[in-house]
Design goal:
Layout (H helix, E strand, L loop, with lengths): L2 H14 L1 H39 L4 E5 L21 H8 L3 E10 L4 E2 L4 E2 L2 E5 L3 H4 L4 E4 L4 H5 L4 E4 L1 H8 L8 E4 L2 E9 L15 E5 H7 L13 E6 L5 H16 L9 E5 H44 L1 H9 L4 H34 L15 H27 L3 H6 L5
């Protein structure tokens, strides 16, 4: 039997059994659609969460001062610890695995007034790398510079919501507003961003000023010192430097403030890198779970193919007997059944992929919450599912094909449908 004749014969057989063929193709296509959609949903969740997390900050550790819970150097436990402005250069020079050590000081009890409106918003001061570390992208104007910090200039960058509240739809860059009793020039307006976590409020509602200016105009109030900080932001050079940077931070701060570096109550660290690792572990677990569900679905599809082919062997017993009686070899019988399986899998898989990608495209037209990037299908998952299903289906077709090839032609010619 030449290849062309084989294809024609397979096509005629499938057309002659439309209902059986359609049900088999539906089962296989549904398996492909299910797997692609599951993987696309998992990928959309991963990408969405990663995007929102990146809006908060890039690989940062927020170090809060607390109270000691361990005795150290003859000093009692329960002492209040305060970070000071002088800690920053020392920590930056001695913590060699840390790329940035940034101070942060905020005030939410000062009145902000523009020509058009007034508000009570959080004013926060830090160093220029704060924009990079905390993902503060500027949409109009620019962020404050090292020169602004060194000269303690009264310049301010507005969050998007803060700008709307103070200036409405008007342009804010170049305008003057009063923070407390001091006039500040607006030099930038931050781009809108989605944020799902914070330690002191949403960035879109804040005003950002140079740290030296903040320390001069709005120092910490008693019982804190005028140079006391709210917190420190620490960034390692890379993930490989993460643990070393954290250990160096605790060690240096412990020496400067006389507490045990292992005292986590004295120096409480919100580690976004650990959160990222935990989320990666969760998404990997989800990937393995979906993979297991997908393989189970494919196995069920393979069993469906086997059942259908077994029924086909029974229905076509007389036909097989005739073929063998006129000289058809067992190999050609097996080849025909294998070809039927391949054709069914190929066409139903292609239909399943088309439906899955089409559904993903339609769903992605709907507005999604910030933490979900929509259904993100991947060709690798679809083609992998198709190849695996083909292998499983071929394996499932071997037994029915051998059953067909082993039919005794004399007995087959005596067989009647329903007998």
């Amino acid at each position: 039997m030449v290849f062309r004749d084989l294809l024609v014969d397979v096509y005629r057989t499938l057309v002659a059994h439309k209902r059986r063929t359609a049900l088999t193709m539906f089962g296989i296509a549904w398996g492909i659609v299910s797997i692609v959609l599951m993987v696309a949903a998992g990928e959309g969740l991963r990408v969405g969460q990663a995007k929102v997390a990146s809006q908060f900050g890039k690989d940062i550790m927020i170090v809060f001062a607390g109270r000691t819970s361990l005795q150290a150097g003859g000093l009692r436990a329960g002492r209040r610890v305060r970070w000071e402005d002088s800690d920053v250069p020392i920590l930056q020079s001695e913590a060699t695995d840390c790329k940035y050590v940034l101070p942060e000081l905020g005030r939410d009890d000062v009145r902000i007034t523009s020509r058009f409106n007034s508000a009570s918003l959080l004013v926060t001061g830090s160093l220029p790398p704060f924009a990079e570390v905390r993902s503060i992208n500027v949409d109009d104007g620019h962020f404050y510079t090292w020169e602004d910090h060194q000269q303690a200039r009264r310049v301010v960058v507005l969050g998007t919501e803060a700008k709307k509240q103070l200036f409405g739809s008007r342009s804010a860059v170049g305008e003057t507003l009063h923070i407390g009793e001091f006039p500040y020039i607006v030099i930038g307006v931050m781009a809108k961003k989605d944020q799902d976590s914070s330690y002191d409020g949403w960035d879109v509602n804040k005003l950002f000023v140079p740290f030296a200016t903040m320390l001069r105009d709005f120092p910490a109030k008693p019982p804190d010192n005028p140079t006391t900080l709210d917190r420190l932001l620490v960034v390692p050079f890379s993930m490989e430097h993460h643990e070393a940077c954290k250990a160096e931070t605790r060690k240096v701060l412990g020496r400067l403030h006389n507490f045990d570096p292992d005292d986590k109550e004295a120096a409480s660290i919100w580690d976004t890198l650990e959160e990222a690792k935990a989320f990666e572990t969760m998404t990997n677990g989800m990937k393995y779970f979906l993979g297991a569900v997908g393989i189970t679905t494919l196995l069920l599809g393979g069993l469906g193919v086997m059942n259908v082919m077994l029924v086909a062997v029974r229905e076509r017993t007389r036909e097989i007997g005739v073929r063998k009686a006129v000289g058809a070899a067992s190999r050609s019988i097996i080849l025909q059944f294998a070809a039927e399986t391949v054709m069914i899998v190929f066409f139903s898989g292609a239909v399943g992929l088309a439906i899955a990608f089409g559904l993903c495209g339609l769903v992605d037209l709907i507005p999604m919450p910030p933490f979900f990037a929509g259904l993100i299908p991947t060709w690798s998952s679809g083609l992998t599912a198709l190849v695996l299903l083909g292998v499983i289906a071929m394996a499932a077709a071997i037994y029915p094909a051998r059953q067909a090839a082993s039919v005794d032609p004399i007995e087959a010619l005596r067989w009647e449908a329903g007998g």
